[in-house]
Amino acid sequence: MPTDRNLTRQEVSTYATCLLEAARAEDAVFEVGTQLQNALLIVRANMRLRDALKEPSIPSAKRIEVLEDVFGNCDAALVEVLHVMVERDDIQLLSRVCEEYGVLSEQDLNAVIVDVTSAVALDDHLREVLTTKLSEDFGSDILLREYVDPSILGGIIMSTHGERIDASMTSQLEHARGVLSTELSGGDR
Amino acid sequence: MKISAAGRKSLSASLLVSGILAAVPSVAFAAEAGSGASLIIPDMSEFIPALLAFLVLWFILAKFAYPAITGMLDKRAATIKDSLEQAETARIEGERLLERYKAELNDAKKQAAAIVADAKKSGESVKADITAQAQVQADEMIAKAQLAIEAEKNQAISELQSSVADLSVAVAGRLIGEDLSDGEHRKLIERYVKEAGSLNAN
User: pTM of the entire structure?
Assistant: First the structure.
């Protein structure tokens, strides 16, 4: 099995490197990374899409057709890489390719990419505040990958390199709910 | 004809009696005649037949009646004696049986009393056991019921608290989502960013 793992790692690295080189040629390393991240989120969130792309009984031409329908507006290089992954039944490696691309793109851009999720779109002032704070934390340039998700109600979620700060309203309300339940339970018995 | 000694004795006594009896009518007859010695001396013409008749009668009685009467009396005496002996024996046996029955009755009374006492004692013991067992079962049932009630109460309280917390959070979330403007959201984000720790784990 170590051989299989090495082979898989090489495959992941190959996909990520090819995509990075293509994105670099287009001077869209960060944008392609963002689209790759979005593609991963879409595949994760949609079970039927995930199953359709992974199902070996479905002809690859049909699967590519589905892929085109969903990700046709993305960067051409990204769509091409996804084509290859679907053809080779490697779509389950998308998560690892995304991670690898993130590492490579940060090295290429010489910056730390931070995913930022908020209930409303950030303005320039907030970007400045965030960039300043994160630059102090990492001692490096910061690139913000912004997401707007009204379901978090408010606040902000920041994540990078597997670390995450969840200062969203939903998490704080959930914490408050837990505290409330615990306090009520503990106080009455 | 031979006469035994007993028979001679009996004959002598009979002659004496007969003589006396023969003399009596003569006296009476003499008194009736009312004349001297003739009043005492019987008339031979009457005396002889009377004597003969007496002798015949005595003989017949001695020969046939006396033995039968004597035998009958002896037999009756023996029967009476036997009856008395049997009665005495029966009385003794009855008294013995009576004593025995009295003793057995006393034993039976004692045994009955002992049985009643044992039954009473056993009954008391069984009653005490049943009472204790029932008490234990009742205590267990009460304890289980109390536990069940306590568990249900706690569960109900927990569910209520959870519902209250959920409702509170939902209301708070709705208020936040509806009432905060974009500017207020951004101010909130800025405050959180400044308060947040470092994202760099290294």
Answer: 0.55
